[in-house]
Design a protein that fits this description.
Elements lengths: L8 E9 L8 E7 L8 H11 L4 E4 L8 E7 L4 E2 L3 H11 L12 E7 L2 E8 L2 E5 L5 E2 L6 H7 L16 E5 L2 E7 L28 E13 L4 E10 L3 E3 L3 H15 L5 E8 L7 E9 L6 E19 L1
Parallel strand pairs: 2-3, 4-6, 11-12, 13-15
Antiparallel strand pairs: 1-2, 1-17, 3-4, 4-5, 6-7, 7-8, 8-17, 9-10, 10-11, 12-13, 13-14, 15-16, 16-17
Protein backbone atom coordinates (compact mmCIF):
# COMPACT_ATOMS: atom_id res chain seq x y z
CA UNK A 1 0.00 0.00 0.00
CA UNK A 2 1.42 3.38 -0.97
CA UNK A 3 1.74 5.95 1.73
CA UNK A 4 1.54 9.71 1.21
CA UNK A 5 4.81 11.59 1.47
CA UNK A 6 5.12 12.97 5.02
CA UNK A 7 5.62 16.50 3.68
CA UNK A 8 2.14 16.42 2.13
CA UNK A 9 0.34 16.73 5.44
CA UNK A 10 -1.31 19.20 7.77
CA UNK A 11 -1.74 19.22 11.53
CA UNK A 12 -5.21 18.85 13.02
CA UNK A 13 -6.85 18.79 16.43
CA UNK A 14 -10.33 17.90 17.60
CA UNK A 15 -12.20 19.49 20.47
CA UNK A 16 -15.55 19.10 22.15
CA UNK A 17 -17.25 22.49 22.29
CA UNK A 18 -19.82 24.01 24.64
CA UNK A 19 -18.67 21.65 27.37
CA UNK A 20 -15.80 21.15 29.80
CA UNK A 21 -16.13 17.36 29.64
CA UNK A 22 -14.68 15.21 26.88
CA UNK A 23 -17.21 13.25 24.79
CA UNK A 24 -19.94 15.77 25.57
CA UNK A 25 -20.78 18.92 23.62
CA UNK A 26 -20.28 19.26 19.89
CA UNK A 27 -17.16 17.77 18.23
CA UNK A 28 -15.05 20.09 16.09
CA UNK A 29 -12.04 19.49 13.86
CA UNK A 30 -9.51 22.28 13.31
CA UNK A 31 -7.09 21.87 10.42
CA UNK A 32 -4.05 24.15 10.45
CA UNK A 33 -3.41 25.48 6.96
CA UNK A 34 0.15 25.04 5.67
CA UNK A 35 2.46 28.04 6.06
CA UNK A 36 2.88 29.71 2.69
CA UNK A 37 0.42 27.30 1.08
CA UNK A 38 -3.27 27.01 0.45
CA UNK A 39 -5.82 24.24 0.18
CA UNK A 40 -8.40 24.44 -2.57
CA UNK A 41 -12.09 24.69 -1.63
CA UNK A 42 -12.54 21.20 -3.08
CA UNK A 43 -9.80 19.79 -0.82
CA UNK A 44 -11.30 21.50 2.22
CA UNK A 45 -14.68 20.01 1.38
CA UNK A 46 -13.19 16.52 1.07
CA UNK A 47 -11.41 16.89 4.41
CA UNK A 48 -14.64 18.06 6.07
CA UNK A 49 -16.42 14.98 4.72
CA UNK A 50 -13.58 12.80 6.04
CA UNK A 51 -14.00 14.12 9.59
CA UNK A 52 -17.79 13.93 9.19
CA UNK A 53 -18.42 16.43 12.00
CA UNK A 54 -21.12 19.06 11.72
CA UNK A 55 -18.35 21.59 10.98
CA UNK A 56 -14.62 21.62 10.32
CA UNK A 57 -12.47 24.75 10.66
CA UNK A 58 -9.50 25.60 8.45
CA UNK A 59 -7.21 27.89 10.44
CA UNK A 60 -4.96 30.16 8.38
CA UNK A 61 -1.46 30.87 9.74
CA UNK A 62 -0.89 34.25 11.35
CA UNK A 63 1.53 36.81 9.97
CA UNK A 64 2.78 39.44 12.41
CA UNK A 65 -0.13 39.34 14.88
CA UNK A 66 -0.84 35.95 16.54
CA UNK A 67 -4.08 37.37 17.98
CA UNK A 68 -5.58 37.99 14.51
CA UNK A 69 -6.51 34.85 12.56
CA UNK A 70 -8.64 33.93 9.57
CA UNK A 71 -10.84 30.84 9.52
CA UNK A 72 -12.91 29.01 6.91
CA UNK A 73 -15.84 26.89 8.10
CA UNK A 74 -17.11 23.85 6.18
CA UNK A 75 -19.92 21.41 6.84
CA UNK A 76 -19.84 18.04 5.08
CA UNK A 77 -21.63 19.62 2.12
CA UNK A 78 -20.87 23.35 1.96
CA UNK A 79 -18.93 26.33 3.28
CA UNK A 80 -20.65 28.54 5.86
CA UNK A 81 -20.15 32.28 6.47
CA UNK A 82 -20.36 31.81 10.25
CA UNK A 83 -21.09 29.13 12.83
CA UNK A 84 -21.04 29.30 16.60
CA UNK A 85 -19.28 26.19 17.86
CA UNK A 86 -16.40 26.52 15.35
CA UNK A 87 -15.88 30.08 16.60
CA UNK A 88 -15.81 29.16 20.30
CA UNK A 89 -13.71 26.02 19.72
CA UNK A 90 -11.12 27.85 17.63
CA UNK A 91 -10.78 30.64 20.20
CA UNK A 92 -10.17 28.21 23.06
CA UNK A 93 -7.70 26.23 20.92
CA UNK A 94 -5.70 29.36 20.12
CA UNK A 95 -5.09 29.88 23.84
CA UNK A 96 -3.41 26.46 24.03
CA UNK A 97 -0.76 27.48 21.48
CA UNK A 98 2.81 28.52 22.32
CA UNK A 99 2.07 32.23 21.85
CA UNK A 100 -0.50 32.27 24.67
CA UNK A 101 -0.45 29.05 26.74
CA UNK A 102 1.97 30.35 29.38
CA UNK A 103 0.06 33.57 29.98
CA UNK A 104 -2.45 33.16 32.79
CA UNK A 105 -4.76 36.01 31.84
CA UNK A 106 -7.63 36.94 29.56
CA UNK A 107 -6.55 37.02 25.92
CA UNK A 108 -8.13 39.10 23.18
CA UNK A 109 -8.50 37.80 19.62
CA UNK A 110 -10.03 38.77 16.31
CA UNK A 111 -11.24 36.00 14.00
CA UNK A 112 -11.92 36.90 10.40
CA UNK A 113 -14.84 34.90 8.95
CA UNK A 114 -16.78 35.16 5.71
CA UNK A 115 -19.49 36.94 7.73
CA UNK A 116 -17.03 39.51 9.06
CA UNK A 117 -14.58 39.99 11.94
CA UNK A 118 -15.32 38.50 15.36
CA UNK A 119 -13.77 40.17 18.41
CA UNK A 120 -13.44 37.89 21.41
CA UNK A 121 -11.94 37.37 24.84
CA UNK A 122 -10.71 34.01 26.13
CA UNK A 123 -10.01 33.10 29.73
CA UNK A 124 -8.87 29.54 30.36
CA UNK A 125 -11.28 27.17 28.62
CA UNK A 126 -14.04 29.75 28.09
CA UNK A 127 -14.51 32.20 25.22
CA UNK A 128 -16.86 35.13 24.74
CA UNK A 129 -17.26 36.34 21.18
CA UNK A 130 -19.08 39.42 19.91
CA UNK A 131 -20.43 37.76 16.81
CA UNK A 132 -21.37 39.29 13.45
CA UNK A 133 -25.09 39.70 13.12
CA UNK A 134 -27.57 40.95 10.56
CA UNK A 135 -30.75 39.75 12.18
CA UNK A 136 -33.64 39.24 9.81
CA UNK A 137 -37.10 37.96 10.74
CA UNK A 138 -38.61 36.98 7.41
CA UNK A 139 -42.04 38.37 6.62
CA UNK A 140 -43.70 34.99 6.07
CA UNK A 141 -43.44 32.42 8.90
CA UNK A 142 -43.35 28.68 8.25
CA UNK A 143 -46.79 27.03 8.58
CA UNK A 144 -47.29 24.55 11.40
CA UNK A 145 -48.30 21.92 8.85
CA UNK A 146 -44.79 22.08 7.37
CA UNK A 147 -43.38 21.27 10.79
CA UNK A 148 -45.76 18.31 11.13
CA UNK A 149 -44.57 17.01 7.74
CA UNK A 150 -41.07 16.76 9.22
CA UNK A 151 -42.05 15.77 12.77
CA UNK A 152 -45.42 13.91 12.70
CA UNK A 153 -45.02 13.09 16.41
CA UNK A 154 -45.78 16.73 17.22
CA UNK A 155 -49.44 16.16 16.41
CA UNK A 156 -49.75 15.39 20.11
CA UNK A 157 -48.96 19.04 20.96
CA UNK A 158 -50.97 20.55 18.10
CA UNK A 159 -54.04 21.19 20.22
CA UNK A 160 -51.93 23.07 22.76
CA UNK A 161 -49.53 24.89 20.48
CA UNK A 162 -49.71 25.12 16.69
CA UNK A 163 -48.80 28.67 15.67
CA UNK A 164 -46.76 29.48 12.54
CA UNK A 165 -43.01 29.43 13.20
CA UNK A 166 -40.78 32.46 12.62
CA UNK A 167 -37.99 32.21 10.06
CA UNK A 168 -34.97 34.04 11.48
CA UNK A 169 -31.47 34.69 10.11
CA UNK A 170 -28.60 35.62 12.43
CA UNK A 171 -26.51 36.54 9.36
CA UNK A 172 -27.25 36.22 5.67
CA UNK A 173 -26.64 32.55 4.89
CA UNK A 174 -27.63 31.11 8.29
CA UNK A 175 -31.39 30.81 8.85
CA UNK A 176 -33.47 28.85 11.35
CA UNK A 177 -37.13 27.94 11.72
CA UNK A 178 -37.84 28.58 15.40
CA UNK A 179 -40.35 26.00 16.65
CA UNK A 180 -41.60 26.65 20.17
CA UNK A 181 -43.00 23.68 22.11
CA UNK A 182 -45.17 23.95 25.24
CA UNK A 183 -42.99 21.81 27.54
CA UNK A 184 -39.44 20.50 27.76
CA UNK A 185 -40.86 16.95 27.73
CA UNK A 186 -42.21 17.54 24.21
CA UNK A 187 -38.65 17.71 22.88
CA UNK A 188 -38.26 14.00 23.58
CA UNK A 189 -40.96 13.19 21.00
CA UNK A 190 -38.83 14.50 18.13
CA UNK A 191 -37.28 12.00 15.73
CA UNK A 192 -34.05 12.21 13.72
CA UNK A 193 -34.35 11.84 9.95
CA UNK A 194 -37.11 12.66 7.53
CA UNK A 195 -37.39 15.38 4.90
CA UNK A 196 -36.41 19.02 5.05
CA UNK A 197 -38.93 21.62 6.11
CA UNK A 198 -40.98 22.68 3.08
CA UNK A 199 -42.96 25.87 2.44
CA UNK A 200 -40.00 28.05 3.43
CA UNK A 201 -40.43 31.51 1.93
CA UNK A 202 -37.34 33.62 2.54
CA UNK A 203 -37.38 37.36 2.02
CA UNK A 204 -35.93 38.23 -1.38
CA UNK A 205 -32.15 37.86 -1.36
CA UNK A 206 -32.12 35.89 1.92
CA UNK A 207 -32.24 32.35 0.53
CA UNK A 208 -29.82 30.24 2.59
CA UNK A 209 -29.07 27.17 4.66
CA UNK A 210 -32.16 26.63 6.79
CA UNK A 211 -32.80 24.24 9.66
CA UNK A 212 -35.53 23.82 12.30
CA UNK A 213 -34.59 24.70 15.88
CA UNK A 214 -37.02 23.28 18.43
CA UNK A 215 -37.17 24.92 21.85
CA UNK A 216 -39.04 25.09 25.12
CA UNK A 217 -38.74 27.82 27.74
CA UNK A 218 -37.57 26.30 31.04
CA UNK A 219 -37.73 29.43 33.19
CA UNK A 220 -37.64 33.21 32.93
CA UNK A 221 -36.57 35.86 35.41
CA UNK A 222 -38.15 39.04 34.06
CA UNK A 223 -36.42 41.32 36.57
CA UNK A 224 -32.97 39.91 35.77
CA UNK A 225 -33.86 39.61 32.07
CA UNK A 226 -32.62 36.03 32.01
CA UNK A 227 -34.21 33.13 30.11
CA UNK A 228 -33.32 29.43 30.39
CA UNK A 229 -34.14 27.32 27.33
CA UNK A 230 -33.83 23.66 26.25
CA UNK A 231 -33.42 23.05 22.52
CA UNK A 232 -32.86 20.47 19.79
CA UNK A 233 -31.61 21.07 16.25
CA UNK A 234 -32.56 18.30 13.81
CA UNK A 235 -31.93 18.76 10.08
CA UNK A 236 -32.14 16.25 7.25
CA UNK A 237 -28.55 16.60 5.99
CA UNK A 238 -26.90 17.12 9.41
CA UNK A 239 -28.99 14.80 11.56
CA UNK A 240 -29.09 16.03 15.15
CA UNK A 241 -26.55 18.64 16.19
CA UNK A 242 -25.35 18.54 19.82
CA UNK A 243 -24.78 22.31 20.04
CA UNK A 244 -25.57 25.02 17.50
CA UNK A 245 -24.21 28.43 18.42
CA UNK A 246 -25.57 30.21 15.35
CA UNK A 247 -29.08 28.85 15.99
CA UNK A 248 -28.82 29.72 19.69
CA UNK A 249 -27.87 33.26 18.67
CA UNK A 250 -30.79 33.50 16.22
CA UNK A 251 -33.22 32.26 18.87
CA UNK A 252 -31.84 34.60 21.53
CA UNK A 253 -32.08 37.67 19.30
CA UNK A 254 -35.65 36.77 18.37
CA UNK A 255 -36.73 36.28 21.99
CA UNK A 256 -35.01 39.51 23.04
CA UNK A 257 -36.76 41.45 20.26
CA UNK A 258 -40.11 39.97 21.35
CA UNK A 259 -39.51 41.40 24.83
CA UNK A 260 -38.41 44.67 23.27
CA UNK A 261 -37.13 46.83 26.16
CA UNK A 262 -35.05 49.55 24.52
CA UNK A 263 -31.32 49.47 25.27
CA UNK A 264 -31.64 46.44 27.54
CA UNK A 265 -29.41 43.36 27.68
CA UNK A 266 -30.99 39.91 27.92
CA UNK A 267 -29.05 36.78 28.84
CA UNK A 268 -29.92 33.26 27.73
CA UNK A 269 -28.75 29.91 29.10
CA UNK A 270 -29.34 27.27 26.45
CA UNK A 271 -29.06 23.51 26.94
CA UNK A 272 -28.76 21.29 23.88
CA UNK A 273 -27.72 17.72 23.09
CA UNK A 274 -29.35 16.25 26.21
CA UNK A 275 -31.46 13.67 24.37
CA UNK A 276 -28.47 12.39 22.38
CA UNK A 277 -26.15 12.09 25.40
CA UNK A 278 -23.91 15.04 24.48
CA UNK A 279 -25.04 17.68 26.95
CA UNK A 280 -24.01 21.17 25.86
CA UNK A 281 -24.26 24.57 27.54
CA UNK A 282 -24.45 27.71 25.40
CA UNK A 283 -24.53 31.28 26.71
CA UNK A 284 -25.85 34.23 24.71
CA UNK A 285 -26.23 37.90 25.66
CA UNK A 286 -28.28 40.19 23.41
CA UNK A 287 -28.31 43.97 23.72
CA UNK A 288 -31.10 45.82 21.93
CA UNK A 289 -30.72 49.24 20.35
CA UNK A 290 -32.06 52.45 21.86
CA UNK A 291 -35.45 52.01 20.22
CA UNK A 292 -35.81 48.33 21.17
CA UNK A 293 -36.60 47.25 17.62
CA UNK A 294 -33.11 46.14 16.57
CA UNK A 295 -30.07 44.29 17.87
CA UNK A 296 -27.00 46.25 18.90
CA UNK A 297 -24.74 43.42 20.10
CA UNK A 298 -24.71 39.63 20.38
CA UNK A 299 -22.18 37.87 22.59
CA UNK A 300 -21.83 34.09 22.31
CA UNK A 301 -20.09 32.26 25.17
CA UNK A 302 -18.98 28.72 25.86
CA UNK A 303 -16.18 26.37 26.82
CA UNK A 304 -14.21 23.73 24.93
CA UNK A 305 -11.84 20.87 25.71
CA UNK A 306 -9.11 19.32 23.56
CA UNK A 307 -9.79 15.68 22.61
CA UNK A 308 -7.22 14.58 20.03
CA UNK A 309 -4.46 15.80 17.73
CA UNK A 310 -2.56 14.38 14.81
CA UNK A 311 -1.38 14.70 11.23
CA UNK A 312 -3.63 14.50 8.19
CA UNK A 313 -1.96 13.20 5.01
CA UNK A 314 -3.10 14.88 1.81
Amino acid sequence: MMRAHPDASVRYVTLDVFTRERFKGNPLAIVEMPLGGELSPETKQRIAREFNFSETVFLHPHSSEPSRRTIDIFTTTQELPFAGHPTIGTLVYLCTGPDFAKENKTQSFTLQTKAGPIKANVSGDTAEASIPHNVRVCKIPVPWQSILNVQPSLRSVEARFSTPCPLVSIVKGMTFVLVELPQVEDLAALTVGGPRVDSVEWDQGWESFTAPYFYAIVSEDEEARHVAVRVRMIESTVGEDPATGSAASALSTYLALQRGTAGSTYSFSIEQGVEMGRHSEIGVKVTLNDSGDGVQDVVLAGSAVLVSEGKLYL
